[in-house]
Amino acid sequence: MRKGALALGVIGALLLTGCAGGGGGEEPAANQETTGPQSGGTVHMLQNADFSYLDPARGWDGGVNAFYRLLYRGLTMQTSGDAEDPNAIVPDMATGLGEASDDGLTWTYTLKDGLKFDNGDPITSAEVKFGISRAWDPDIGIGSPYLKMVIDAPEDYQGPYVSGDLPTIETPDEKTIVFHLKAPFPEFDNVLSQANAVPFPEGTGAGDEFISDVIASGPYTLDSYTPGSSIRLVRNENWDPETDEVRKAYPDAWEFEIGIDPATIDERMIAGQGSDASAIASKISGSSLPRLQTPELQERTISADAYCTTYMSMNTSKAPFDDVKVRQAVNWAIDRATVQNASGGNQLADVATAIIPPAVTGHKEFDLYPSEGHAGDPEKAKELLAEAGMPDGFEFTLDIRSQPTAQAQAEAIQQSLEKIGVTANLNVIDTSIYYETIATPAKQNDAAITGWCPDWASSASTFIPPLFDGRNIVDRGNQNLAQLNDPEINQRIDEIRAMEDPQEAATAWGELDEQIMELSPIAPLVLEKGIFLPGENITNYYPSTNMTDLTIVGLKDPAKS
Length: 561
What we know:
The chain has 561 residues and is of the alpha+beta class. 23% of the residues lie in helices and 17% in strands. The chain has a domain of 220 residues: Dipeptide-binding Protein, Domain 3 (Dipeptide-binding Protein, domain 3, Roll).
């Protein structure tokens, strides 16, 4: 999952999936006192940027995925943020996890009774199938790629609006849905926990219908939406809590205030006045950390470990990054310690040298481009550039988000590369459309600073295949930003995904991580941690740098919201 497009502007990098998964690290303490969450009131969210899309077939990053959990339901889901294992996948609309056939190619699910959309219409297997099949639409299905990667489909299938019925998903009756897979995939329950595996009424959602409105199946529905300004959610009266074991939905409403300067967000959360006492927001920026030393603020402060890798991708499909020596030179040259400082220092970031972060099963500790203090090795980089026929360096365009930390990281990279005669020209893109832009190869420039989070924490299969399998390169919604298409890498991905022993697979993913980094399609930069400061009236809040579970957040005193 893409790292939260709204980082520093939405919860944490609000950050799912586990983009979904919450990682495998220590669970942060919730902001709870003796008074637990009470039903009622309004929780406020302060954001710098808008969500990417209300439509879960289109949006796919940690911030919006956490938002989707308030509106939509799937057959399975990541369990609650306060669970003993918050990364576990549990049934949601299904009565249980999937029943796999002996050959692993067929998975069957049964729907619970009493499921309805916000208009009162029943949710049957037909609506689940229809909603899932939207992922194949070439214009709409630009979100999570796993449904298309795993579920079998005709080669020319383009979703329900273009191609009609998807024969590889069967609905023998209103309660039963059967999926046929391309190959055995033991983690299929995790695939169906993705944001785009949700039901919609048949025939809805074509074109831009869901750009400014929704059809909800979760505990809340859309009351109002002013793009770039505000979102208000209110209770979905047709959501039956008896069918939902995870979402607690304590507040009566959610109000999202959008377009606030990150420094102003920090100021408001530190002051905690009025409705801001019932607010949650982005992680605190590095410049504001020294102000959090008073006992009152320390009591409200919550830390969260890093589950996502921030990196710079390099477009291997065109010069100069089509030359592996050039890409390796960049990796040698980057002063990662300076990028760490630009990310808020060691309180908010650790240096990254591998693709898979330590919190995800499959991480292997290695550094193919070592330097003292992670300050970079310009001389080694210059040697490689000379071997590549570029002793005088080159210029390239670097795509970045219009967000302070991302820009500071980019400037740190600029300074590093200047030492080897390389000029990085920054192309600043609005945060709300950033990921869609760089995930469209026709719009993508030479390189981009982005991030990736585990879509489910149990396996590095949510890191390596989406980012480096060349068969996943598409015209829209492309996550392989480096456009790496190496037959040996592709084959090894297939071999690892077929492994039945999880430990064997985990070890193999770590080894493949190192093999990919020899090709240097990306430059790992940092692992961003988070320090959060919720309002004093907020409780049951478990922030994560991967995905924060909003569905269990509540207020100590709803009357004060």
